[in-house]
Amino acid sequence: MFPMDHSRRGFFNTLTAATTAAAGWQAFAAQLAQAQAPGVAADSYWTVVRRQFPLKEGLIYMNAANVCPASRPVLDRHADFLRDFHSNPSFQNRDKYAEMQERLRKKLARLLRVEPGEVAITRNTSEGSNIVVTGLPLKQGDEVIITSHNHPSNNDSWKVRARREGFTIREIQTPVPAASAEQLLGEIEKAVTARTRVIAVTHLTSTCGLLYPVREIAELARRRNVWMHLDGAQTFGALDVNLGAIPCDSYSTSAHKWMMGPLEAGVLVVRTGRIKELWPSIVTAKWSDTLADSRKFEVFGQRDDPRIAALEAAADFLEMVGLGSIESRVRNQGQYLKERLHALGVEVKTNLQPALSAGVVKVNLKGRELKPVYDTLYEKHRVAIALTASGDAMGLRFSPHIYNTKAEADEVVSSLKKILA
Ligand SMILES: Cc1ncc(COP(=O)(O)O)c(C=O)c1O
Question: I need a labelling partner for 375 at 20 to 30 A (CA). Which of 2, 152, 287, 295 fits?
Fold first, then answer.
């Protein structure tokens, strides 16, 4: 159930220079190992994990779909490298980041089960998706399929470009709630024509927490020779995303959400066979026409180098805790909360079936103004969530992560019950 020791190999020798963070990582690894010893209660593992997060005492933070806290080991490694950078910003002291970036690329590739040369390190999901949106050669008459619950970075971005260049957008309405995976796939299949060039969908929507059947959609795209772009902002770090089994052409995600990594870091995956079709959006120093893999999408000029160290730390943390264990925990938390909220009698907009949902839970309160409830939850009960004020996704969004507990879910439900009484 939990990751074996082999997943911890190499974490300590990734730390260059003497770092104060190393001791914290070692202590964390030892505590995780102890928590897995025979006879120790299964929940101890998650108690150890929870202790790594510097969340304020008494705060119930259930907003992973927006921004996650980074764990102490990640923050400490980031701080070490930040201090080191500013103590000596010479070219010589910064040389190490080139090597670190390549090591990070390999780690991310291993986690996502793609090739290192398919991984570009970006600044967030929006940037990664916009590299695809602006970089694909499209002309008048071409068609791009999007869904109404795509994030604006994978919806408005296509519309803005289409207005300039005259290609056609076919927007499919995302059903609330969705009836089945077949319904979702069927609607996309119906929209594909001989002119379709791109299908751009969201792995798990931030609006209502709908998990799309992305493997089947990607297979459809392959059969029709259509580029499939997948927005993974709500899945990498929450689910054990295996891009080896999802044949999409590109996948974009952010580190500051479920990955529990630094702010303003992200990952874009573009398949080897497709890289040459995609133009880079930003070209500056270090560009070369010989850049033939995903590195051609990360020529951004001077970067925040210590953030690369923080992103590597986030990848190490995911590997150490184990993406399989994380997925089970996230799914259990989401399912438990959904069922408790459903039992409370509020409208749950997230599909109740585990196959069509994961850790993002949206509820609507019919006949109640949402904003005062949202404010009271935070101000009186210290529950931090998100609010969608209008539209078909209108409601309160709860997105628990591995640092949340069942007791917190119970407290959230009982606080909501008191407010609604
Ligand atoms: C599905 C989805 N895509 C893209 C984004 C944009 O993420 P970022 O602001 O990190 O680029 C979000 C943010 O919430 C999202 O939920």
Answer: 152
